[in-house]
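Let us practice reading a record.
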Amino acid sequence: MPLTSDPPLARASARPEDHGALKVVPVRHPWRWAAVVVTAVLLAQFAHGLATNPGWEWEVFAEFFTAEVVLKAVWVTLQLTLYGTALGFALGIVLAFMRLSDSPFLRAVSFAYIWAFRSIPLIVQLLFWFNLAYLYKELQFGVPFGPGFFSFDTMGLVGAMSAAVLGLALHQAAYAAEIVRGGVLAVDSGQLEAAAALGIPRLRQIRRIVLPQAMRSILPNAANEVISLFKGTSIVSVMAIGELFYQVQVIYGRNGRVVPLLMVATAWYILLTTALSVLQHYVERHFAKGSTR
């Protein structure tokens, strides 16, 4: 006798499947709803505290949010971010291609730079560049190990702002180099081989084939670095540069309104970070035109 057998045809045809008659019961998620309720209550309590707690001193916040001294500090913060990003990524691109070159010497120099500047804390680098005049009284340009043609006094050349931009840019370059290198490596090497077989020059391969595709991998990480640099400019307050966080500290050191002044800085950081995120979205969408369907 067989262990298995097909069901009789008569019994199978006697039980038609009427899906319309089935009762649909939605899946219930009681714990999800409980989490929603608890989270909503906490958010409502937080918003109620912001609106009713007099300790926030919203009238002081409104007084200083668009004060002239704060707006000037915001502009200094934006300048530090812009200069640090432009110089950092320019140097980072050079370091990335040095790291990708066939020369062992260039690869070693690039690796040593990235290793050193990622290992040393940013605040130490900033203080080092701020005290550059202690090590070198003047910078001289001329024949290496020979006579110089002209020189600059470092005391007047490297001020607090210049030292801050130099420190931020050199620190940023180490991270930018790895971001660019990762983006270039993400491009399929077969495309370069095909371009070389067609006789396309090396520089044109990089400019027209590698970089447009690498930008899709580079942009998200690069945008994160720019936002981190924007918030990280607050660290130059140790050099008494009038950026946003330093200026807020000066104001609340005079009037004692610590919390509302910190909220002024917080609101500006959130506002400008949101603007950078929106800009990142549109730039990413521009470079993703070929990949979206």
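A brief commentary: The first strand starts at residue 138 and ends at 142.
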